[in-house]
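Model the whole thing, not chain by chain.
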Amino acid sequence: MARRDPAGPLEYLRRWQMQAWLAAVGLFLYVPLIALMAFSFNDSRRNIVWKGFTLKYYEKAFNNASLIEAFGNSLTIAAVSTLLSVMLGAMVAFALWRFRFPGKTALDGALALPIVVPEICMGVAMLVFFAKVLPWPQGLPWPLNLGAIIIAHVSFSFPFVAVVVRARMASFNREMEEAARDLGAGEWRTIQDVILPHMAPSLVAGALLAFTLSLDDFVITFFTSGPDTVTFPVKVYAMVRFSVTPEVNAASTILIVLTVILTAVALRLQGDPAAAAGHGGGDKK
Amino acid sequence: MTAKAPLITFENVTKRFGKMVAVDNVTLSVQEGEFFSLLGPSGCGKTTLLRMLAGFETPTEGRILIDGQDVSAVPPNKRPVNMVFQSYAVFPHMTVADNVAYGLKVDKVPAADRKRRVEEALELVQLGGLGGRKPDQLSGGQRQRVALARALVKRPRVLLLDEPLSALDAKLREQMRTELCTLQEKVGVTFIMVTHDQDEALALASRCAVMNRGVLQQVASPNDLYEFPNSRFVADFIGTVNLFEGVLAVDEPDHATIKSPELPCDLYLDHGVTGAQGGTLWAAIRPEKIELKKRPEGSKPPKLDDAPAGTNAVAGVIRHEAYLGGESLYEVEITGGRRIKVKRSNLTRWDQEDFALGEAVWLTWHACSPAVLLS
């Protein structure tokens, strides 16, 4: 029998160090998630020993009105704040990419602040802001009562969108814009026909980022939510304070599955996963 | 017969970027139907000139007229010119046909008319049947054709080409050169091309402008540019040249002689020199205009019919040889140490063997060959 060739210089996957590394990644990244999902089907009050398969905790979670409400709140906040973040982030990125104006460097720096400022500080700041500076009216009908949280979420997620969009625009060939102008398009038409299509993958990527950031934010939301505006992470935290029941596992599993489906759909809509990451598919050969 | 009004006129156009003068007081006109080429080293301002014509830059001083109309205040999308960009700038998210149709769509040309014109344009650049492809499915040469079709379909008064062949490989470049020429004859549109490649300019253009550091050096036909340059810069930029600094010794209406400290013999010219006011001037001789002859021990200088004995012939030794197949390039060291470049066609299959390194040779040239340069 022919002996196996020794690993080539670029065949990293055949070296034991790399295999060990991959195994570690798998272990620490996915095993906890899989354990969480598995134990959501565990027929036991406690999350320690496997007692048998059951769906009753899912049933319980679905019948838990306050959990469902929190879930609905989270999705609403995420959807609205994503929409606003993408619009705001794209506009800021466009302005920073396209124009030169006084204070550009300052704006550039200020934009990074929400990314680098510790979340707890942001949370406290928001708490003070909505308590003293702009008190959000209490007792508004749903979904208007979520306004404060939405504003808070937009303020920390639109810089992420801006960063992604800017990175994408860096690969834009200015001659493309000039070509459109040369062929007769006005400024707006050029933006619509040439610049936006180039920006599109980063808008999708930015939206995904903003959506997940909003959906799983706990710290800032914790400081801005009131008794009637509880979001899913805040609710889970409240439940865990009593005990980690499989009900929490079940709710979390649903959330994970939902996020994975959403991401898959977004990537599918986009067609080219490389472009989603801002690597600009096949337009630069 | 009166000359037709030029299609494009640059009137004392100057463009400054901050302190840098990119284009310095250029006055230039281009006639309808010309294949005009702007030639110069990189950074000489030729692209800025083209971009001002397209409307992407505005002149700091002076005016640009298209068809007699001052276009300084006209935005690029309203000018009767279209451009083929250096990167082609084909829109990657549109099919080939959509790319070509884009300009017509913006102009609100009816769909049926649009479809016909797009097909015609694609046919014109030999891309018929590829309309449904995406740009990333095309080769570099094909993408350039898309850019050409996209610009030509709008039936511009002037087509601007920014370094159109620079991104193509050598073989394809040669082919596109011929095609550009044919295309221009077919559509009859005025072409203005920017290039730093002198071969490209000479091969394609009906008239060339040579620029250096923002200043227009010479505007002439390719032939005149090569054979009758007006300055050392042009002579050196277009092709290679041997330059000899010297002074006029004799200047009669029908002949002249130049003495150069670098040449052991006098340089005899079969024409008088106009415009020389004493002082230094330069004789420029192209390498292919110098004849190489073997120099046996004790031989006398060969004499070409049109120059008196003792002129236009120097003794030398071959110090460097580059065999290029069809021709050979030599560097010949003459008495006094100066090296002279000589180009020789290999007319027979044994030619290159006659002149090896270290061979003693005579260099001669005709009295009409040197170009006299005053600057």
